[in-house]
Amino acid sequence: MTLRLEGVSHAYAGRPVLRDITLELAEHRIGVIGANGSGKSTLARTLNGLVVPDSGRVLLDGLDTRRHAREIRRRVGFVFSDPAAQIVMPTVAEDVAIGLRRSGLSRAEVESRVSAVLERHGLAGHRDHPAHLLSGGQRQMLALASVLVTEPEVLVCDEPTTLLDLRNAAVVAAALRALPQQVILLTHHLDLLAGFDRVLVVDEGRVVFDGAPADAVAHYTALMGAGRTAAPEEGHAERRP
Ligand SMILES: Nc1ncnc2c1ncn2[C@@H]1O[C@H](COP(=O)(O)OP(=O)(O)O)[C@@H](O)[C@H]1O
Ligand SMILES: [Mg+2]
After folding, report:
1. Pair 146, 95: CB distance under 8 Å
2. Cα 228 from Cα 142, distance rounded (Å)
3. Taking CA atoms, which of 18, 28, 161, 170 is between 20 and 30 Å from 196?
């Protein structure tokens, strides 16, 4: 199961946001870092067809997001920074179950999957509670559980800890680390990337570095220190051998 971007470019109202990105995303743990506005979220959204690029292709095992968005969205789960954007049902258990409404599973199977995922993510005691009464950290765990119950093969997480305090950020980070699925994590919490297989640095719509976490963080830190007057040379993205 591999995501591939081939020559992906995208613009909003004529302003380029992604510029000719080609990537194969095969590693189990991939981080994406970069300044605000560099194009990270747009890049992430191309991975499950939430954004279809103006040019180039995004493929999951050869399926193009342009034509197979539904199938791809089922296999590539997405977690946003703000769980409120994702929680749609009044109670915790209902919110998790709604993702299975078109799964063809029986009521009993839905119930058992919902219970298992709530148990695994520390929400079993809150199953009938109103979702809006959960703490911020619990809400993000609920958003995560509601995606995981559908058993996606890949989880794309767009700054899932940004709105959380340190303790809750650590809880969510630990949950992500424990997942068997491939995880693609966009974050400004650089310490979460320790142990990752690969980290991409995005700047002005390009992948300007692609390598080990510590090297990527060093590259990003230098880039931010250098400021916008010393933009990296075009077309010279550093790559792992
Ligand atoms: N739906 C949209 N419509 C118009 N402009 C957008 C939209 N989404 C993002 N942008 C712009 O595209 C640029 C890249 O945004 P984004 O991909 O969200 O970057 P990042 O996640 O790195 O902050 C920003 O300048 C942002 O304002
Ligand atoms: Mg973003």
Report:
1. yes
2. 39
3. 18
Domain boundaries, the chain: 3-85+154-230
Which pLDDT band, with edges at 50, 70 and 90, does 239 fall under?
very low
Identify whether the C-beta of residue 103 lies closer than 8 Å to the C-beta of residue 150.
Answer: yes
Residues 202, 197: Cα–Cα separation, whole Å: 17
Contact assessment for residue 21 and residue 43, using Cβ atoms and an 8 Å cutoff: yes
Q: Which residue CA neighbors atom 6 of ligand 1 most closely?
A: 12
For CA atoms 124, 129, 135, 139, give the dihedral sign: positive
Query: Among residues 151, 85, 87, which one has the least CA distance to residue 116?
Result: 151
12, 159, 220, 224, best to mutate for ligand 1 pocket (most atoms within 8 Å of CB): 12
Distance CA 58, CA 216 (A): 24
- 217-223 long-range contacts, CB within 8 A, separation 24+: 217/33, 217/190, 217/193, 220/33, 220/34, 220/190, 223/35
Topology, domain 3-85+154-230: Rossmann fold (3.40.50)
Ligand nearest to the CA of 202: 1
Rounded-to-integer distance, Cα 225 and Cα 144, Å: 34
Q: Give phi and psi for 44, each to the nearest 5.
A: -60, -40
Contact 35, 204 (CB under 8 A): no
